[in-house]
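dude i think i finally got it to work??
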Amino acid sequence: MLSFGNDILQKTNMQSYEISIKTTVEHWGMGDSETNLFLAYLKSNEYQNCKKSKVDETAKLAPLGRVGDSCIYYNIPLGRKKLFGKKATFHNAFELETYDVEVDFDKIDSLYEYDPCDPNVMLYTSSSKPFIDIEQPYLFDISQAIMNESSDILDYAERCYLFVASRFEYGERESGFKTLNYTLLNRKGDCGNLSSVFITLLRMQGIPARHLMGFRPDGGLHVWADFYLQNYGWIPVDVTYKHDYPSQDYFGKIKFEHNGFIVQRGIAHQIDVLDSPKRIAGLQTYTYEVSYNKPHHAKVYISRKVDCVKKS
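look at this
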């Protein structure tokens, strides 16, 4: 059994995967195009260990946020007389160790005040509109009511987890991140948007919390959350699985088969490799922008194929 942080994050069921990602960009029609393509990049973090990575030689790595995550960036000119012609294919590969994770709450014997100079506190307690808004009045009233019933911040976090799982419906699967107000109005959201509600509730009380975004070996996408306890580290929470399986416990527990590989921690990170900064909400697969010299007579198509081979 492996442990992380202050020996509260227990890692079991280690599995090793070889992941190969093939991305094809193709220009159809007249004229030329220029595509700025950003791909997910797998790295080590609190929940997984990247043993090896092989990035296509034409790529650049760009910082994704301020916590050590990265993305793969390509500038791709396409056209009959361009460097890549009218079609470009890129190959990237990774070898990762993954785990099931469970927090040993018995080892949390004291709760400490947050250090305002701690980078996790500085990064993950403010708004990130329109997805996280710590001044949203309706949700703020709910936050205050839950806090009034809570014995401490750990109890508060669990009560928020139960509140979101029981009061919101799961829907609009893999539809992308919506505004917080949209999710509150409809009382419905997919995994990313339900996580946004939970994260907002925690940040309203000064508890650092963030999204965790990833994909499973079968290609399915998933988003969950974690929150930070001073002197202990991060605690994973999955409100979506709690909603779907209310008799099970996903507070401080995640199974790799449910959650998958993590490609991004946090939301709406700024990337500075272009002439003007680009803000990316979530990068579980890819995002891109295209310019054409004959925009009404051309189209760029992007396809992605992921192969995951379990080694152990």
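DSSP finds seven helices and 18 strands in the chain.
im so relieved honestly
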